[in-house]
Amino acid sequence: MNLDFFEKYKYKIKSKNELKKILKKNKSKRTIMCHGVFDIVHPGHVRHLIHAKNRADILIVSLTSDKFISKGKFRPHVPEKIRSLNISAFEMVDYVIIDNEKTPINLIKYLKPNLFAKGFEYSANEINKNTIIEEKTVRSYGGRMVFTPGDIIYSSSNLLNFHSPQIEGEKLISLMYDNKITFNQLRQTISKFKNFKIHIVGDTIIDGYTYTSLSNSRNKTPTFSVIRNKVENYLGGAAIVASHIRAAGANVTFTTVAGKDAFSKLIYKECSKRKIKLNLIIDETRPTTYKNVFISNGYRLLKVDDVVNNSISQSIKNKISKLIKTTNSNGVVFSDFRHGIFNEKNISIFTKSIRNKNFKIADSQVASRWGNISDFKNFDLITPNELEARFALAKQDSSIYELSKQLIKKSKSKNIILKLGSNGIFCLENKNINKYFTLGSFVKKLTDPVGAGDALCSYAALGLMASGSIKIASILGSMAAACECEFDGNIPVEPIEVLKKIDYYEKFSKL
Asked: Do 18 and 137 share a domain, yes or no?
């Protein structure tokens, strides 16, 4: 998407006051107005607009603002800025306006178009309540409702259900254009990561992969047999968050709890190799959390967890609180997998131990357990996924916007990045709760999605600290998550990989 696209057609996009003045100067001209979402512009829309233009001199198209689109959890797929430019690109359209109200009623009253056009489907069978209200409004000042021909009718919702638009590049360029963010700013932000000291506190998990092959022996029972070929163990949980942040360039201190077993030696070894300063507290009452998946010919057969989720003792709690208070850092990341370190009471105690000037980030991956991301109060950034947010609020059917708005209010966090898997991310700032933005997934070749959320949290946290911009933070976090998805295994993302993504989309912006 060439940046010229944003300049070429924006002259048609007007505010309601600007439109009022234009119509006043053109009193002798006949005006028609169409209203809709226009998430996906299809042939039915084009014929609708052509017919409307044929009925009048001036065609105004009003678009429903993003925040009022509630049909479908992830709608709109195309943000209002791009939707308005897409419609502006049509020759038959004279002006476009983004309607910042739930219905077009007040805009109709204000602009008083001679005609208000609806698609043929709104006149078929029983006319819906909203159309009746619109018609009464238009008639109240002497205007008239018209219905365009219905020889071709498509449903945007059906088209979107069939295949979502792949516009992650367009969304990125639009966000950067609107906020005057350059690709060099993204690169400069990454270069600042080395200036930070970050303290990560959280549950370490050892991820085991037992590779097997099916045995040819014939069993008398339906039990299948496998031959163990090899076992590979990796750092996971909060340890991989620490590894991502270290790989990104920051100095890292990692505080965690492990059992008195061989896995504690693995934690020491890997953290030393990655140059992570480790505060490892040994708890003899529990094993190190170990999650072992058995794989045969690429298929996951079984996962066996060796885990005790009891809350840590008071003495360990005191040690962690002291380390949070005394560790020299610019930011603290609480990485919660709910395996003993964090619960509602402990979160409150640990949060009070954070120095006042420290940046505070929380990531909670506890949707299947009794954790709650909203327990992390007054943080600078929280990064739950959709399921975790719904779990925290007991909201099964809310739109993504309503879900995020309620969560940011309840947690009192400054920023929220809601992870939506293959649908990208949804971002909201508490200081501007009525305006959100979204980004699509930047994954080009999905290999393994494990660890994407950890990469996103790590790069977004550093990005927000370095730039002060949730937009820049979200872009870098999303790109890091995409890089992780393109790796086989939960491997720390190096800045060079994110810089390659930046280079790719800079070239895309010049096409």
From this structure: yes
